[in-house]
Amino acid sequence: MYTKNLEQLLRLLQASRQSGLLVVEDVEQGDAPWQGQFRLVEGNVIECQVRMKANGQVLLTDDEALRWLVARGRLNWYLDEGDQLPDTLLPPLLPQGIATEDRRNTPQSNNTGKHGAAFSTPVERSGWIPRRTLKGQQISAQSLRPVEYLQVFTLVNGHNTAEGITRLLRKSPTDISRILKDLQAAGLIE
Asked: How far apart are the C-alpha atoms of 13 and 176, rounded to whole Å?
């Protein structure tokens, strides 16, 4: 997936309290020699680095890395939610040629619960907090299309209510309800 504005992406991930490794790369250069990495804990950027892909050498860190990445403009990105990251160091880059999809599909603990009858209109259930199913935890969010589905799915984290997602995205309750219902029908959330 790509973003035109890294700052807006970081705000969205902060609002949705996402944790994991956010990886960004240059859209224009295709196979850029560098990669930006952000360690997020409940939406807060704990660490930011720009590294060389070939050898993992750290080029920039923290505020300097953030300013440099923001100045890049359009970036490809993915959020690796499956890894539990250490408190101090980001993991080294995978050697080129190894699929990163395997890392993104690491199952997480299943903290799902029952929320009423299946396929009822989600937003109509006052206070409903959608949660990802095991299938939803294993899917790469970037595989969701169109982008509205990606935005809603990103905000489904077990903390945001359906009404909260509607407010955060500033979309109509009908649109959010339809998307949540589709995600529920696909078995990605409950």
From this structure: 18
What is the C-alpha separation between 102 and 80, in angstroms, rounded?
Answer: 10
Q: Report residue 15 as tokens.
A: 């609002």
User: Which two three-digit tokens encode residue 57?
Assistant: 């050498």
Distance CA 83, CA 100 (A): 12
Closest listed residue to residue 130, CA positions, set 101, 91, 95, 159: 159
- 3-class secondary-structure state, position 19: coil
H or E element in which residue 135 lies: helix 134-138
Handedness of CA 73, 75, 78, 84 (dihedral sign): negative
Q: Which residues contact 39 (CB under 8 A, 6 or more apart)?
A: 21, 45, 46, 47, 48, 85, 90
pLDDT tens digit string along 79-129?
888 644 444 334 443 333 323 333 333 333 333 333 333 334 455 555 788
Please state whether the predicted TM-score (pTM) of the whole model is above 0.85.
Answer: no
Q: What's 36's DSSP letter?
A: E
